[in-house]
Amino acid sequence: MGEERAFWLAWSQISGIGPVLLGRLQQHFGTLAQAWEAKANQLRQIEGFGNQMIKKVEQERQQLHPEQLLAEHQQKNPHFWTPADPDYPRLLLEIPTPPSVLYYQGKVQPEENQGLAPMVGIVGTREPSDYGRRWTHRITTALTKKGFTVVSGMADGIDTEAHRACIEAGGRTLAVLGTGVDVVYPLRNRTLYEQIQKQGVVLSEYPAGTPPDRVHFPRRNRIIAGLVRAVLVMEAPSKSGALITANFANEFCRDVYVLPGALDNVRSHGCLGLLSRGAQVILSEGHLLEMLGAMPPLDTVEQYRTPTMPFLEPELLQVLEALTSEPTGFDAIVQQTGLAAASVSSALLQLELSGLVSQLPGMRYQRV
Collapsing DSSP states into helix, strand and coil, what is residue 328? Predict the structure, then answer.
């Protein structure tokens, strides 16, 4: 697991290699460590790896030494997860573009990362009306008192109001930044930033010292949507970053709830547009809590990983227990189980059809 962590970091340093290509590399080779050793003709089999990209990979790969890079990187960035880490937020792994590296500071709660704690995103305009601020405070307070963790982006306006209301109510709040986790933006939120770290976590896909950049903020919105099961848009004009978050939420099959506003309030035009496209309307705190309460709970991590374990025949269970999340060769499985090769082959096929095992190139297998 530690080795794979180094390769997630190393691949993320190669220009042009983002979450989508990293996902394809992992799916094709089984591990990013295996992908690191791949030749040009092997990389060419993967969609998105043309001659120019392969040349770039070969050049930059020569300059990177994954284990050394990991050790050096941790000196400035002591706290981060990669998808290879067991603590990486489970719900983020469901989206098409999970961050290759996710940095954090603050007080982590494992149940949030496992998707077992109720979490909602609250977003909106940087210049809200009194109506928007008032209802953001009311709804955030009600959610916090019911045990919801509030996720937002620590921007001016609605984000700031949501974080503050959650903190005042004694709850947990997560801030997803468009800077490094050690950079406060906007500067006026310094005190809020410090409070969030005491009662929650600040997160970013950008390493320490990364300054604000306008292209970072739309990208971080996908992380807000990915971390939660529902996004609340409190007040947003027709051109608002909050609508980007809502669109990501829709793409990721998250619920979207909208605070309705007046037709003559331009700050609400984006919200009204979302309602016209099928978003759920917020009629009151109680109404929202009732709708959120109707969401089915997620399975526990154990149920999620091994849903049919109690019903496996002894031989199938023996083969499954010989596997881990790291690829294992067929001969090694035969040797470890002591079963005949034909029996192991049959068991692996049944486990693969059950969705418990995946086969990789070179007759290697890993537990799903």
Answer: strand
Cα–Cα distance, 222 to 73 (Å, whole number): 25
Looking up tokens 């025949």, which residue turns up?
A: 313
266 inside domain: yes
Q: What is the DSSP string of 17-48?
A: --HHHHHHHHHHHSSHHHHHT--HHHHTTSTT
**Structural domain boundaries enclosing 6:** 2-76
Answer yes or no: do 171 and 114 share one domain. Answer: yes
- Alpha helix locations (H) across the chain? 2-12, 19-29, 32-36, 40-43, 51-62, 66-76, 110-113, 130-145, 158-168, 190-199, 216-227, 241-251, 269-276, 285-293, 301-305, 314-321, 330-337, 341-353
Nearest Cα neighbor of 92 from 178, 204, 209, 179 is: 204
State the average pLDDT over residues 99-104.
97
Structure tokens at 134: 């008032």
Quickly tell me which residue has 């307070």 as its tokens: 141
198 is a domain residue? yes
CA distance 66 to 6: 5
According to the model, what pLDDT value does residue 300 have? 47
Q: Which residue has the tokens 């007040």?
A: 235
- Cβ–Cβ < 8 Å for 157, 272: no
CB atoms within 10 A of CB 187: 8
Of 234, 304, 245, 356, whose CA–CA distance to 91 is shortest?
304
CATH of the domain at 326: 1.10.10.10
pLDDT for residue 298: 61
Mean pLDDT of 351-368: 79
Q: Which DSSP category does 148 fall into?
A: P
Residue 330: closest CA among 352, 314, 310, 313: 352
Q: Is there a contact between 152 and 123 (Cβ–Cβ < 8 Å)?
A: yes
Model-level pTM?
0.80
